[in-house]
Amino acid sequence: MKNFGEIFRKFRESRGLRLKDVTKAGISTSQLSRFEKGETDLTITKFMAILDQINMPIDEFMYAAHDFHRDELNDLLEKVRLFVTTHDVEGLEKLLISQMEKDSQNEKFHQLNTILLKIRLQDLSGDTYYNESDLTYLTDYLFSVEHWGNYELLIFMNTLDVLKHKPFMILSREMARRSDFYKEIPTNRRLISTMLLNGYITCIERQKFMDALYFEKQLKQCFFIETEIYERLVFQYAQNLYHYQKNGTKSAIIEMRKCIAAMKLAGSNHLAQTYEGHLEKTLASK
Predict the structure, then answer these.
(1) Which of 36, 120, 193, 217 has its CA 20 to 30 A from that of 111?
(2) Cα(286)–Cα(284) distance, rounded to whole angstroms?
(3) pLDDT tens-digit series, residues 177-215
């Protein structure tokens, strides 16, 4: 468990807890002491039990164990967002090259992350980077995973716009079932909401209005709380996009512009810029 014992000791001591305060988890004082010194490992059951004793979530501990860096995919996505909002094709291309040259302990996840970068770079630049075999590899992986976690949700929500419509819809419906165990985790709940919003907009753009209603129904069941401003604004934007694309409702344009204005008012300028560009592209295509 690498330096898990040392990290655990720091968190235990920072909470003013003694070794014997943690032994209520069914582990002896001597065994816990040896674990903290790096002399022995613990079973996953005992490790989770002692984390409970110091009131520390596993994701918080793992964040510290990774030197307060997020996992590789989240780091990549943060860089992608920056390059896309600044329209930095060269920067994103260098990131792809760096990813392809990187040695990885897990070839499968390395390839999936690379495919994601290819998709986003092609969307940004207009040049060809991914091919049909890349999309097949991506969809085969997603179909093969019985229970979706954080990784699968992130991969899907950031690539769904390029998938063929039939597998995209099958995966979207399966997503609800395959991530069912994780919906109550706040982070995953927001990821699922964002995926549904992306899927909703993608169906509207493809003129698949019946399928769009499926996403609208799912989104209405999310019960966005008042602090989830981003989700509320994008949902309202997407609903008006639906009315404009399907019925040509002119007032929907005004409502979409109001959503963008609210984003600017909140200081989310990059987000507003993204939806402003999306709206102008939509209007130009009519």
Answers:
(1) 193
(2) 6
(3) 766 655 666 667 788 888 999 999 999 999 999 999 999
| CATH number assigned to the domain with residue range 4-65, chosen from the 4 options 1.10.1520.10, 3.30.470.20, 1.10.260.40, 1.20.1250.20 | 1.10.260.40
Domain boundaries of the chain, sorted by first residue: 4-65, 224-286
* pLDDT tens-place string over residues 95-151: 999 999 987 778 899 999 999 999 999 999 999 999 999 999 999 999 998 878 778
Write 62-66 long-range contacts (CB < 8 A, 24+).
Answer: 64/7, 64/11, 65/2, 65/3, 65/4, 65/7
Phi/psi of residue 103, nearest 5 degrees: -75, 140
* Residue 286 tokens, joined: 């009519």
Nearest in space to 200 (alpha carbons), one of 254, 239, 231, 162: 239
Residue 68 phi, psi (nearest 5): 60, 35
Distance CA 41, CA 121 (A): 43
